[in-house]
Amino acid sequence: MNRVPATAAPAALALGDDALVLSHRLGEWAGHAPVLEEEVALANIALDLLGQARVLLSLVGDEDELAYLREERAFRNLQLVEQPNGDFAQTIARQLYFSTYQELLYGQLAAGDGEFAPLAAKAVKEVAYHRDHAEHWTLRLGDGTPESHERMQRGCDALWRFTGEMFQPVEGVDADWQKLENAWRESVGAVLQRATLIVPEGPRGGAWTAGAGRQGLHTEPFGRMIAEMQHLHRSHPGATW
Amino acid sequence: MATAAAHRTTAEAQAAEAERTAAHEAAFDAAVAADERIEPRDWMPDAYRASLVRQMAQHAHSEIIGMQPEANWITRAPSLRRKAILMAKVQDEAGHGLYLYSAAETLGTGREELLDKLHSGRQKYSSIFNYPTLTWADVGAIGWLVDGAAITNQVPLCRCSYGPYARAMVRICKEESFHQRQGYELLLHLSNGTPEQHAMAQDAVDRWWWPSLMMFGPPDDESAHSAQSMTWKIKRHSNDELRQRFVDIAVPQAEALGLTLPDPDLRWNEVRGHYDFGAIDWDEFWDVLKGNGPCNEQRISQRRTAHEEGAWVREAASAYAAKHGKAAA
């Protein structure tokens, strides 16, 4: 695989780590989903993201070395995607926030002529489906029963503070970040409104603990996640699988 | 008198009904004998319907319970390529569960009812999934041996007399054969890898070999449903025939893998033209079937928990569909 120039490596890592980490979290649902159709759907999304991650990481180096041998502080993913699954509503809130961002960002990249245009053009089609899936479930849960409404609102509220980080410019990604943020707020706001949910109003970042994933500062659950992910690979140095 | 007339009418009606049933039965038997497919709207004996529902439900349950031992390794898969393959495989199993529940639904039994029976222990799933996946090599052993045994059982089902089941099996067998190859390839890589990887592969094969042979069910003379199922052409070969076929295929494959099978009595029998193999521990088989395997409790409890914890999601989908007048999913 052709490697990208060194200037594009941080961008490939940031986008690749987002996809890798969210794919892993979705993989944790296998065998635990609320209905068989969602076993298939969540696995499908996880597989799309893993495919994207493999392409992006391979632009920088060996995909397995990058996934399995980096320390926590070297990962560049958003804190949003590393958040634990919680209940199905929280997983859907995370999907809604992230897939809306990813669709808008990849849409911009696909329209440009930068390093990531070809990858983004392919991925944006997959991501449009992920956003559609998240949107439909947000509507069903928000406008379903009192219990589902309350859970969906709680999920949206809990993850809101991780959403500001998405719009901090990433080195090497040629995007209009202000336009991206406006479009994201409009799109997510419209879905939440149709779902009879309230758009959260709390801060979206601020203190370094919320919103510094791109700088390699993560949340406590992430350390456990990668400990599990890397354990077997690290136990057999030099082995191939 | 009116009552006598009524009796006579009832008796006549009963006779006419018996005649119709006999005609249906004759047509059904002829269709089965001619290797024609029975379709959902065709007349079929109640016992045939019940037997199919039991078998298809057990098969569907095995697919969804079978996701658990493999999903156990998704988050620890040691390379991204293996992780993608394993996730796709577990996803296929969910898909197989979906087709099979749908095929059972053509006989008038819905998924909810069948899941209730699974959760309450009134219907079974393949006992093989009551064994634990202790190392990464177990993912390979399940693919090679467990999926290999399943294919040996299932390929003849593609010619099963019930149409929807036979058609579902054609698609399932194609995917299973891919699963079996990935398991074999995974083990081959480990066997040729570091000494630790080779040992991991050998240990997995040692633990999965005998339970895989048990997957074909009890010996023919102790199999409760076999004879009737063979007459109806739901089943086409006996348990012992299929088990022998599997052993004959697996032995040369083990040699190619550079791994041994844990049976000192395994040897080629020139006269029979088959491999002889040692005695299966049927006490273990019955014990696991009764619920005393290493993971029976864990598997069913995870399934029940996922279902119960997902109840509010399914309720929300129904409530939303009712409000907005469209399909839930």
Automatic annotation (TrEMBL), chain A:
Signal peptide: none annotated. Gene3D superfamilies: 1.20.1260.10. It comes from the Bacteria. It holds the Pfam family PaaA_PaaC. This is Phenylacetic acid degradation protein. It comes from Streptomyces chryseus. The gene is paaC.
Automatic annotation (TrEMBL), chain B:
It comes from the Bacteria. InterPro entries: Aromatic_CoA_ox/epox, Ferritin-like, Ferritin-like_SF, PaaA, PaaA_PaaC. This is Phenylacetate-CoA oxygenase subunit PaaA. Pfam families: PaaA_PaaC. Residues 1-20 are annotated as: Disordered. PANTHER family: 1,2-PHENYLACETYL-COA EPOXIDASE, SUBUNIT A, PHENYLACETIC ACID DEGRADATION PROTEIN PAA. The gene is paaA. Residues 1-16 have a biased composition (Low complexity).
